[in-house]
Each structure stands twice: as C-alpha cells, then as structure tokens.
Design goal:
- The chain is an alpha/beta fold.
- Helix content is 48%, strand content 12%.
- The strands form 2 sheets. Strands 3-2-4-6-5 form a 5-stranded mixed β-sheet, with helices on both faces. A two-stranded parallel ribbon has the order 1-7.
- Strand 2, helix 8 and strand 3 form a beta-alpha-beta unit.
- The chain is elongated.
Length: 377
C-alpha cells in the first residue's frame, strides 16, 4: 500500500512537472543566473513562454527585446544565447514565419551544446524542406513592378472609399446576413491593419465603406471568376457587369463617381465571392482603361486556423495601390519574408509592410535595395 502511494505521488509529481515545464525551467534558470543582466534577460524569456499561446505577436516582440539586450551587452554565455535564439525561432514557427525561424535556429546552433546542436540542425533541415514546398512559383518573375500614383487607388493615404460588393458567380455560395457580417468583421481587421501600417510611414488613412449585394444577376451566375485558364476574361466581364448593375457604364466610371460622391482621395472596388479559391487583383499599371481596377476575394467566411480572410482582403487591396507579389520573384526567397506580399503569417497582426511595399504604394519615395530589379511605372 505504501509503495503504491509512493508511486502515485511520483506520477502526480511527474504530471505536474510536465504541465509546468516552462515555469520550472524558468525558475531553475533564474536560480542559475550569474548576473543581474542575465537574470533580466531570463525573466523576459520566461514571460515569453507564458505569453506564447495567448499572444504570440506580443511574445515575439518581447523576445526580440531580450535578443537585442543580449547582443548589445557584454557577451553572455552560450547557454543563454541558445535559449533565446531557440525561443525566437519557435515563436516564428508558431506564426508560420519559417524563413525567420530558420535564421534564429541557425544562430542558436552556433552557440548550442552538441546534443542541442543535433536537434536544432534537424529542425532547420525540416523547415527548409517545408519552405521549398511553399515556393512552386518562386522563379516566375525576375522584375518587381511597382505602380504607385496610378488609378483610382493611387496612394495608400487620405480618405479611402471602399465599394465592398458581395457577389455570387457560378461557383460561389449564397450570401446570408450572417456571412456578410462575418466578412465585414474580417474587413474591419484588414482596414485597421492597413491604417496602422500606413501610419508607420507617416500617412494618415481613413476608410469609408459602401456595401452592395449582386447575387441575383443571371449573367454573372453563369460565369466563373478566379485564378486559372479561361477565367481572366470572366474576371473583367463580371466586374463590368457588377458596375453596370450598380448604375455605371464601366468599372472606372463607377469608381470615379464613388470617389466624387464620398469626397474621397482614393477609391477601391472589392468583390467578395464565397468560394475557397485563389484571390486575384487587377491593378492599373501605367494608366487605367474602362475596366479600371478591382480585387476579387475568393474566401468563404468559415472559422479557420488563421486570418486568411482578412489577410486576403489586405493583400489584394495593396495590389490596387500598386504593390507587387514577392512570392514569385527569383532571388527574393529570404527578402522581406514577413511582408504581407510575401509569405503569409498565421495572424494578420504578425505580417509587416516593408520598405518595398511602402515604395510601391506611394508611402515611401526612396527605392529600397533589393536582390532583384525594381521597375516603377
């Protein structure tokens, strides 16, 4: 009986230890700290562990601060450096920021013990393979095309009126009131993200929405828009049919009227279709024809594991303001990996708007350095 009780106590202790491993490790590390500076860095690392699942973006900002402190102060021992760089890589992994995760784990490798080195080496190898699988279009283009100051959405600044249209094409689902409400909640997050990123470059942005529903047009419902062969003509045709149903002869006239009546500086047309497909944008390059510019968001509004609806909304909107994709550029594999026009992060709030996208959307005048050619139209 006593033996069984002792075994039970040991098992319970083991379970408690497993459930509170991070806390126990943090406590032991603090006890072993050799200086006040090291203790302060370890306290930040422990706080990151506690925040990791509830607020990964905040945890990453905190560990970034700890890493800067580590690199600015007199050199600390390898054990602490390995701990911080590994944690930083883990946080990037949690946010789907795989390029940055590899970079952090490689820094941890350089300071790790032999056993830790093997584990980190395996993580790096597996993640690099995953990145390769994410890049089937990497070598499509060698030139980045920036198109600021063109079209109804010229620069990401000032008063911006958005015509948000709920459309039902051949493959799209019906739009219920609940679905439209969910889509607009996601659009609100995209608006807030765009405005916050513009402020980082000194620009003030204010959005005004105009909502429309085009779900009973028989011609539109016979057509299918989206990515793929044969859909390009449908993209422009459906956008034109939507504009005509809303009282304008073409998309450009619709956007010009919208901007005038809303007294806005910029005008944006977003057409949202309830279908899980590849979102696409048509932007004005050097000038605008009658079809103007518009974006299709092809995302169903169902609960998912990451912010894919608001991510698609923000990404496609930036195309209309002149931004180009980075995921299909030769030589851009590790360039601005957190930029929203490159690899997707799990949370929209973890995505950034880097100098190249700021340049392309008119937020920055200076052409940034890049490992590929940038052409401004």
């Amino acid at each position: 009986m006593v033996g069984q009780l002792a075994c039970g106590v040991l098992v319970a202790a083991a379970l408690v230890a497993a459930n509170h491993f991070d806390e126990l490790r943090g406590w032991l590390e603090l006890r072993a700290a050799s200086s006040p500076a090291e203790r302060k860095v370890l306290e930040k690392a422990g706080e990151c562990d506690r925040m990791r699942h509830q607020d990964p973006v905040g945890a990453l900002a905190l560990v970034d601060s700890a890493v800067r402190q580590l690199e600015a102060d007199p050199p600390m021992h390898d054990r602490l450096a390995t701990r911080l760089y590994t944690l930083k890589g883990d946080l990037h992994w949690d946010l789907y920021q795989y390029v940055d995760a590899v970079a952090s784990w490689e820094r941890a490798e350089a300071r790790a013990s032999p056993s830790e080195h093997v584990a980190l080496e395996n993580r790096v190898f597996q993640t690099q393979r995953h990145i390769e699988k994410m890049n089937p279009e990497r070598n499509q283009h060698s030139v980045y095309l920036a198109a600021p100051n063109v079209g109804p959405a010229a620069i990401l600044t000032g008063e911006i009126v958005v015509a948000y249209v709920f459309v039902q094409d051949q493959g799209g689902g019906a739009w219920s009131l609940r679905d439209r409400s969910l889509a607009l909640t996601s659009w609100g997050a995209a608006e807030a993200w765009l405005a916050a990123r513009a402020r980082q470059y000194g620009a003030g942005v204010h959005f005004t929405r105009r909502l429309f529903v085009v779900d009973r047009n028989p011609t539109v419902r016979r057509l299918r828009v989206g990515w793929g062969r044969g859909s390009w003509n449908n993209d422009a045709r459906v956008a034109r049919l939507v504009a005509q149903q809303l009282g304008a002869p073409n998309v450009l006239a619709f956007l010009d009227h919208l901007r005038h009546t809303a007294r806005a500086d910029q005008a944006v047309l977003v057409l949202h279709i309830q279908r899980d497909d590849r979102s696409v944008a048509w932007k004005c390059i050097a000038s605008c024809g009658p079809d103007g510019e518009f974006a299709y968001v092809l995302e169903p509004v169902t609960p998912k594991g990451w912010d894919d609806v608001s991510y698609a909304q923000a990404h496609e909107t930036l195309h209309l303001f002149g931004a180009d994709d980075l995921y299909n550029l030769r030589g851009a594999g590790s360039y601005a990996p957190r930029d929203i026009m490159h690899y997707p992060s799990r949370l929209l709030s973890a995505s950034t708007l880097e100098a190249i996208t700021a340049f392309a959307t008119g937020l920055r005048r200076d052409r940034p350095a890049a490992p590929f050619r940038i052409v401004k139209r």
